[in-house]
Structures are given as structure tokens and as C-alpha cells.
Design goal:
The protein has about 375 residues and is an alpha/beta fold. It has 13 helices and 4 strands. A 4-stranded mixed beta sheet has the order 2-1-3-4, with helices on both faces. β1, α3 and β2 form a beta-alpha-beta unit. α9 packs across α10. The longest helix is centred in the middle third of the chain and has 32 residues. It starts with a helix and ends with a helix. About 5% of the residues have low confidence.
Length: about 375
Amino acid sequence: MTIPSAILSLGNVMRKELIQTLRDRRMVFSLLLAPVIQLIAFGYAVNLDVDRIATIVCDEDRTPASRDLVEQFFADGTFRRRAETLDADAAQTALESGEAAVAVIVPRGYAVRVGRADAPQVQVLVDGTDSTRAQVAASDASQFLLLHGIGGDLLQTPPLVPRILYNQRLKTPVYMLPGILASLLLNVTAIITAMGLARERETGTLEQILVTPIGPAVLLAGKCLPFIVFGLVDVLAVLLLGSWLFDVPIAGSLFVLALGAFLYLFSTLGIGILIAAFSSSQQQAMLGAFAFMLPAMLLSGFMSPVSSMPAWLQPLTLLLPMRHFLEIMRGCLLKGAGLRDLAPQLVGLAVLGVVILAASIARFHRRLA
């Protein structure tokens, strides 16, 4: 097949795929509207911000000084007063029953001896069941006690004043949006592509097309390129909504964002083709796609950083396109990283895309042969 005829065939397949997709309202909804709705839902629902922690107070001193200390403890909104008691054992029981996550115990004699070397310790008990909440609660309580010079050697310890960069307000959506976008694109491309190709092979459409002079590579390119366009539209919509609804910054270059998104879609489409090549039905394709998505999300750094994973597992995460895309998005959106800073991730995505797509085409060609 000559180059002009190949280009003509590619255009015909793309036009056929676009017409077929746009005629299916459910497909249009899945490609364009569903990602926007999911972004809004996930952006509000997935919230890892820790505040208003249920707290029980045991003020055994019951003096103006102790009451003032307790009021200041709740002033910034991190802790929410759930109940009060005069019995320290009852406060600990509230933690055990789940009624409260933090207990503040102000001992007798606090007002008389506050500021002295023998001042009684103000005790803060934290429920460690939820490790994230426990770390925030313990850190905030410790900083509060340091600032008020309460307790033993802490009297001589100056408080630390951290400086937070890139996400100054520590908002969850700012950190989560790149991961949500990556998972949505994986859903739009890999799952829909895998199920679409499996359906066409079930109905015999692919075999009918391959009877024509169109080669497998041109056929797959024509069927996949429209989904790259849909994916890029989704990226633009998600970035605009994320910036508008959740104040997610766009500090870096739009060109780097577009390049990273294109390479990521290039890789995920290859994954969809590969899953379809190993599937005999739509059900198998769907199960295969979901079986890939779960480890891809867990090992990509979406929810927990890769650096906290076991050392033997970290190199394996480099084989996941989602990890590279997340680093590109977070680096570009939050830190203003440029092309030179993100070159390793971009090259990694390009290499993975070429390898995955080549393997997919080869497998698909053998399956149809």
C-alpha cells in the first residue's frame, strides 16, 4: 500500500469511527460528559483534609486558666468539642468506643503550677485507628502545647514554623485532581477501546474490513486516533473545571501538559488494544481492563507516594504509564516544571507507548491472521 492510499484509508476509517461514535449517545456520554461528572463528584467526595476532629475534654482543674487553654485548643477548627467529662477514665472509654478521636485531659493543679518546672502535664490521647487523622491530630496538639509552653522540657523548646510550598492550604483536590484525571483517561481509552474492538471482532466487522486492502496498523490507528481527540478534550475540560471549582493552579506550560497527555493517551490506547487482542468477548475485555486498572492506580502514586512502597516494588512502577503521567501533571500544575525538568517522565511515556502499541498491533495481527 502506497503512502497516499494509506493516508486515504486512515482518513476513511477515522471518519467511519467518528460517525459511529457520535451516533451512539451512550458512547458520547461516556467519552465527554461522564468524565466531567465524575471529576465534580470525586473532587467533592474524595477529601483527605483533616479538620473538626471529634474531641472529648476532661478538665479536672476547672479554673479560668484551664478553661481558657481549652477554648484556645479549639480555636482554629482542627478539633471539634464532642463532649466533656470530669473523669479521665471516661475520656479514654470514649476513644475506645469511637465516640471521640482525641481526648484532652487537663489535670488538677494546672492553674497553680502552670509555667513552673513541676507543672503537671496536659495529656492528649489520640485514636490511632485512622493513621492520617492521628498524625495530624498529634502534630497539631504538640504544636499547640509547644506554643503555650506547656510541659517539662518543652518549656525551653522553640516552636517550629513550617513553610509549605506549592499547596499552601493543603487542599485535597489540588493533590488529587491529577490522579483523578489519569484514572478517567484510562477508563475512557483503555476500557472503551478494549470493549469496542472485542465487540467488533465478535460481530465479524473487523474481519470484513481486513478483506479490503487496509492493513491492521492503519485500521487500528484509524480506530484509535479519534479517542485521542476525545481524551484531549476531556483533559482540557477537567483542567478548566478543576481550576474554576477547586482552585487547582496551572503553574507550568500548557505545551508540556498537552504533550504529556498525548503520550499518556498513546500508551493507554495501546493497553486497550492489547487487552482486546487477548480477549474473546466483551466480558473478558471488560474484566481484563478492570484487572489492569486497580494495580495501575494503587502502584502509580495516586493515593500514596511511590517512595513509601517497598524498595523491590518501586522499579516495577516505572512500567506503568499512569505513574509518569501523574508526575508530569503534578510537576507542571503545582510546581511549574518545564520540559527539561519533566524530560525523563516524557521519554518514559514515549518509550512505553511505542513498546505497548507495537506489541498490541503484533498480537492483534496474529489473532486476526
